[in-house]
Design a protein that fits this description.
With about 600 residues, this protein is an alpha/beta fold. The protein folds into two domains: about 270 residues, Nitrilase/N-carbamoyl-D-aminoacid amidohydrolase (4-Layer Sandwich); about 210 residues, HUPs (Rossmann fold). The protein has 21 helices and 21 strands. The strands form four sheets. Strands 1-16-7-8-9-10-13-14 form an eight-stranded mixed beta sheet. The protein has a six-stranded mixed beta sheet with strand order 6-5-4-3-2-15. It starts with a helix and ends in a 27-residue tail after the last helix.
Length: about 600
């Protein structure tokens, strides 16, 4: 970004390097420390490079119309996150660069930080600085996460350069996602180099409690570095992942001054004044000692962006309320389903409705996400289906105002029994016969899906998927398993929460209060085969999500035989889970991208 002997000498001395743009002039006065920030909480679609560019430009124009000086877009906003092995295709990366160039042309009288993949001898997860109709600088992500759902070492190289953007008398230091989760550099180096604001463009996936965790972390970064922090996050669903937005601006004391709403697109506009940051740093001596120990401030390239337009308090910043755990769960599931359906080109969905709590909850969420006209409920009673559950299945459809089909399966069950009469002769009826019923239902639902293009929503929950209490090619059939990361106890809590939010019984109380049953044999109850869900879910959370050992779980007071059985069933079901459809990730360790165990596995805890 710089050339000539002066710049080279500055680098050798470790001093800050200044790149003087046209129109650069020294500024004085307190108003030079004010700027208007825009945080563009964007819902990109992975691979839709042109569509993402159009969404970025639209939000960019909105920000410019509101007098924004600097607008932040999320990490890899042009490609969507995570693009995974699309990044291994040169044509994809080259087109992303062309879209960036088109975005930069729109950046007149406004500066935008835009996430994109930069190919420069290697591939970088990068933040482009677009201003004056072109890309004037690029910051490259330093810390590449390679844990949980992240696999960035597979695709990207990292870099360690610092970049500072001068806007008025304030310096802004760009970072990308994981960079700010680290307690040291680059945030500490940027502060020592003079940054008044640390700007972080991010695609930080949601899990329950993640928003509060981010707020605590960002407050710590702001206080430790005596910096304002501007954090913009992606929003939307991408396969299993949900991005919740929850973008923030915090002052140098770690106080939140603006918060964008969660689970929806938004442009958060806020005026900030870094004069207090300057004053605080003049009073504090600690950082001077750190700079002296290092032999001078960290080296950074400085790009001048011109004069800021804002004056303090021109805008009343939005401070969206924090959400309860159940409301976070509800909104994440709704957003995840809506985006999965929309982004994959579907219109309608189909759900097998049994009159039980899982299918009822799935149906209610589908209606909230898509509208009742886009949801078809199908009841498929057998001889074991009770009058009560059949009644509730119809009632749920009437309450939700969906289309309703009833396809009795008894004749199909009898036909299968006749076909299998010889091979099953002299054996006792058991799980194989029960599962035939579930597989007939799965076949019928998939036939409707194939015929009419309806996306089939599987209705199994995390408790069932954990212990294999779901039928492969039966109730596990489908294109999307909406509640696969929701424990059974949370399904009940969510059902009550939905009714409370609606102010009426969207899900009948009889469905909520009835003892869970697969209704595949006479008088069947889940607790005939499984421990009570309150105990089972606590054991599963310890074993599946926290990786605790059998002895540690027993030490919590659970019956050792119950623990042994839960662990044994969970380990045996790995083969079944591997064939389950994707579903919304809500917890720290969801089946699929998060928890990856071998099917062939002789180790036992």
């Amino acid at each position: 970004m710089c050339s000539g002997q002066n710049a080279g000498a500055a680098r050798e001395s470790g001093a800050t390097v200044r790149v003087q743009q046209e129109g650069f002039r020294p500024r004085v006065g307190i108003l030079g420390n004010a700027m208007r920030l825009g945080l563009a909480q964007l819902n990109s679609t992975v691979g839709d490079l042109e569509g993402n560019r159009r969404r970025i430009v639209t939000m960019l124009q909105d920000a410019r119309g509101q007098g924004v000086d600097l607008v932040l877009f999320p990490e890899l906003a042009i490609t969507g996150y995570p693009p995974e092995d699309l990044l291994l295709r040169p044509a994809f990366v080259h087109q992303a660069r062309r879209e960036l160039d088109a975005i930069a042309e729109e950046c007149v009288e406004i500066t935008a930080l835009v996430g994109f993949p930069e190919l420069d001898r290697d591939l970088f997860n990068a933040c482009a600085v677009c201003t004056g109709g072109k890309t004037t600088a690029v910051y490259r992500k330093r810390y590449l996460p390679n844990y949980g759902v992240f696999d960035e070492h597979r695709y990207f190289q990292s870099r360690h350069e610092l970049l500072l953007l001068q806007l008025g008398d304030s310096l802004v230091g760009p970072t990308v996602c994981e960079d700010i989760w680290q307690p040291g550099p680059p945030a500490t180096d940027l502060a020592l180099a003079g940054a008044h604001v640390i700007a972080n463009i991010s695609a930080s996936p949601f899990q329950l409690g993640k928003g509060a965790e981010r707020e605590r972390m960002l407050a710590t970064r702001a206080r430790d570095n005596a910096c304002w922090v501007a954090f913009v996050n992606a929003v939307g669903g991408q396969d299993e992942l949900i991005f919740d937005g929850h973008s923030l601006v915090l002052d140098e004391e770690g106080e939140i001054v603006a918060r964008a709403p969660a689970f929806e697109e938004a442009l958060l506009v806020v005026d900030i004044d870094t004069a207090s940051t300057v004053s605080q740093r003049l009073r504090e001596t600690r950082r001077r000692g750190l700079v002296r120990e290092r032999g001078g401030p960290p080296e950074a390239t400085v790009v001048d962006l011109g004069t800021a337009h804002a004056t303090p308090d021109d805008v009343d910043p939005l401070l969206a309320p924090a959400l309860s755990e159940l409301e976070e769960m509800r909104r994440a599931l709704v957003l995840g389903l809506r985006d999965y359906v929309r982004k994959n080109g579907f219109s309608d969905t189909v759900v097998g409705i049994s009159g039980g709590i899982d299918s009822a909850r799935t149906a209610a969420l589908a209606v909230e996400a898509l509208g009742s006209e886009h949801v078809v409920l199908v009841s498929m009673p057998s001889r074991y289906s009770s009058t009560d559950t059949q009644h509730d299945a119809r009632l749920i459809s009437e309450t939700l105002e969906t289309r309703f089909l009833e396809l009795p399966i008894e004749h199909a069950v009898e036909s299968f029994a006749q076909l299998l009469e010889d091979p099953f002769r002299d054996t006792e009826a058991g799980v194989a016969e029960e599962n035939i019923q579930a597989r007939i239902r799965g076949t019928l639902l998939m036939a409707l899906s194939n015929k009419f293009g309806w996306l089939l929503l599987a209705t199994g929950n995390k408790s069932e998927y954990s212990v294999g209490y779901a039928t492969l090619y039966g109730d596990m059939a489908g294109g999307f398993a909406l509640i696969k990361d929701v424990y059974k106890t949370d399904v009940f809590r969510l059902a009550r929460h939905l009714n409370e939010q609606a102010g009426r019984e969207l899900i009948p109380v009889s469905t909520i209060e009835r003892a869970p049953s697969a209704e595949l044999r006479p008088e069947q109850r889940d607790e005939d085969s499984l421990p009570p869900y309150e105990d089972l879910d606590a054991i599963l959370e310890s074993y599946v999500e926290l990786d605790r050992s059998r002895d540690e779980i027993v030490a919590d007071g659970f019956n050792d035989e119950v623990v042994d059985r839960a662990i044994r069933l969970t380990d045996r079901a790995e083969y079944t889970r591997r064939q389950a459809p994707p579903g919304v990730k809500l917890r720290s360790k969801a089946f699929g991208r998060d928890r990856r165990l071998p099917i062939t596995n002789a180790w036992r805890p």
